[in-house]
Design brief:
Layout: E1 5-9, H1 16-26, E2 33-38, H2 43-54, E3 57-64, E4 67-73
Parallel strand pairs: 1-2
Antiparallel strand pairs: 2-4, 3-4
Length: 75
């Protein structure tokens, strides 16, 4: 998937991945896609909730070898 910016939050636990995601999205323009790579299993529910609460679209997410990758499009 194409993305405009990548955020590495591996090794961080809640709430840091969400706070860093929010900060990164604030620096982006509408329609751009942020790729987030995390290792915290709780980030799946956190990213889904964050997407719902903020209106940013969680385009896709995958898990592989304990790493969670999310693609979020800025509203």
């Amino acid at each position: 998937m194409n993305f405009d910016k990548e955020l590495d939050v591996r090794g961080m636990s809640c709430p840091m991945p969400i706070l860093k995601t929010k900060k990164s999205l604030n620096d982006m323009t509408t329609g751009q896609v942020l790729k987030i790579v995390a290792t915290d299993a709780g980030s799946i529910k956190d990213m889904q909730s964050f997407s719902t609460q903020t209106g940013n679209t969680l385009v896709a997410h995958t898990e592989q070898n304990g790493e969670y990758t999310f693609f979020m499009q800025k509203k």
